[in-house]
User: Which sequence fits this backbone?
């Protein structure tokens, strides 16, 4: 995954917004990258460009040498809200990425059920989203993002709306899923500790127009547990990232 | 993972109290209707007592007339609803996918919507005559707008992220329409339908007032001409009953279609 000199600006009612300015970033296959930055720094815009949902106004985004385009089928996406379809049951929701391409086979159903079992939702497969808690819905949304074995998993503040404890549990889950599937993952988050906990590399962005101000390599093992949160090294990394935002507020 | 089912708090007597209260109020109102006019010396042609109205309602001589003309009115309502709802839905789905065209057309929709549409009924009688077509056209016009406006609103307020989810997964415009936009807009579509049904009754009756040979509206005018107030009230009861039935049908259909909506 390559981003070269990426620029994005919008014309809005109130004028011209320069969302991204000269973003260069390359992401290795199978890497876990987290992007942190203040609100409105263009993180979400960057993710949408990675997903092929928006066109950059300058520069290029390419995946395996080819320019990114929508619906290539190789992207799994998790949003801040679960965005499940309320009229379909959980299983049908998880199968959605496949059922938009073809009629799901029994193998697809087995795969979806396996994912749900992994997320502790097996017994809820036939329930409607409205019958599940927010945390369970978000887990179902992660299953949905993985059902078609995407090579790129994009997460836009996926746990922002959840309580701290659910968040910790889900972070451990995401770490395990990432290790087991070998997917490339890009996480956008407001939470510095979440970024350090999950990522191999943390990209720190500046306020609008978003630029990359620092890239921090996270030197921990691929497998991570919640004990990590108490390590001095962990604290050192988070405070180093936090210092960027304190400067920008001064 | 453990889950607990939380049932909504329910006072055991709450529902019963409501039903008893409702029936009690109905009895009081009906008694008042029966006896108050006499006690207040209200002339019978102004407010006839309930028993006279009921007599007019079940009058065997009048019954075939009621049925025939109710059928005529409901034909206008039914045909008009069918056409108006189909046009409203179709145009809404088309416009929702063409934001530029929508921008151009929107002011016209607002302008036409703000015309008191029943006032156009006399014009339609000139254009389409005294028969069925002019009534149907008025009903179409009245049913069309609530469906159009509500459906467009529903289609346009579909969650942005859900649309992105479909796009990321390569959904075709047709898949986006049938598998996301329309199901997501169903609650608003049904709200539009409820309004359309109420409007359709108004449209049919007003159109019949303006000029018609058949229909409950015609019977009301005839009864008025003969100062048969009990018959007027009886016809109003029939009209209300038909309106309630239509509204009930839409609400039942909504429950049947939108099974995921909290009740």
Assistant:
């Amino acid at each position: 995954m390559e981003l070269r000199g990426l620029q994005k600006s919008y014309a809005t009612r109130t004028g011209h917004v320069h969302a991204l300015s000269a973003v260069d970033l390359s992401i290795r296959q199978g890497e876990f990258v987290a992007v942190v930055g203040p609100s409105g720094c263009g993180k979400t815009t960057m993710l949408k460009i990675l997903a092929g949902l928006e066109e950059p106004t300058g520069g290029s985004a390419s995946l395996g040498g080819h320019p990114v385009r929508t619906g290539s089928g190789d992207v799994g996406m998790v949003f801040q809200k679960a965005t499940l379809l309320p009229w379909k049951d959980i299983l049908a929701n998880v199968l959605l990425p496949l059922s938009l391409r073809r009629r799901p086979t029994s193998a697809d159903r087995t795969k979806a059920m396996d994912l749900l079992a992994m997320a502790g939702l097996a017994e809820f497969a036939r329930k409607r989203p409205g019958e599940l808690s927010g945390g369970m819905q978000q887990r179902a949304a992660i299953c949905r993002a993985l059902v078609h074995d995407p090579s790129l998993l994009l997460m836009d503040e996926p746990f922002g709306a959840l309580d701290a404890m659910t968040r910790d549990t889900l972070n451990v889950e995401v770490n395990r899923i990432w290790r087991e599937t070998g997917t490339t993952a890009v996480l956008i988050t407001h939470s510095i500790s979440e970024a350090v906990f999950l990522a191999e590399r943390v990209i720190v962005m500046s306020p609008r127009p978003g630029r990359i101000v620092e890239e921090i390599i996270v030197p921990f093992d691929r497998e991570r547990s919640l004990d990590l949160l108490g390590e001095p090294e962990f604290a050192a990394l988070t405070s180093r990232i936090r210092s960027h935002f304190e400067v920008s507020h001064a | 993972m453990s889950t607990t089912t939380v049932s909504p708090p329910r006072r055991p007597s709450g529902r019963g109290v409501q039903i008893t209260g409702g029936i009690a109020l109905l009895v009081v109102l009906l008694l008042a209707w029966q006896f108050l006019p006499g006690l207040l010396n209200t002339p019978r042609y102004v407010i006839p007592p309930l028993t006279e109205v009921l007599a007019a309602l079940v009058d065997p001589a009048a019954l075939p007339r009621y049925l025939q003309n109710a059928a005529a009115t409901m034909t206008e309502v039914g045909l008009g609803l069918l056409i108006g709802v189909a046009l409203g839905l179709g145009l809404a789905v088309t416009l929702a996918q063409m934001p530029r065209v929508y921008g151009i057309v929107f002011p016209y929709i607002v302008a036409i919507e703000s015309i008191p549409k029943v006032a156009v009924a006399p014009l339609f009688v000139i254009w389409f005559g005294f028969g069925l077509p002019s009534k149907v056209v008025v009903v179409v016009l009245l049913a069309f707008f609530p469906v159009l406006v509500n459906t467009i609103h529903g289609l346009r307020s579909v969650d942005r992220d859900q649309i992105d989810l479909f796009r990321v997964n390569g959904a075709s415009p047709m898949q986006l329409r049938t598998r996301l936009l329309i199901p997501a807009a169903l609650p608003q579509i049904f709200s539009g339908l409820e309004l359309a049904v109420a409007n359709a009754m108004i449209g049919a009756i007003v159109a019949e007032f303006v000029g018609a040979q058949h229909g409950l509206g015609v019977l009301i005018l005839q009864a008025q001409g003969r100062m048969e107030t009990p018959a007027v009230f009886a016809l109003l009861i029939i009209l209300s009953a038909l309106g309630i039935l239509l509204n009930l049908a839409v609400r039942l259909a909504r429950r049947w279609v939108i099974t995921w909506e909290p009740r």
Observations:
- Chain B has two domains: 15-47, 50-257.
- The interface with chain A takes residues 1, 3, 159, 161-162, 164-171, 175, 179-180, 183-184, 258-260, 262 of chain B (CB under 8 Å).
- The first helix of chain B runs from residue 14 to 39.
- The mean pLDDT of chain B is 90.
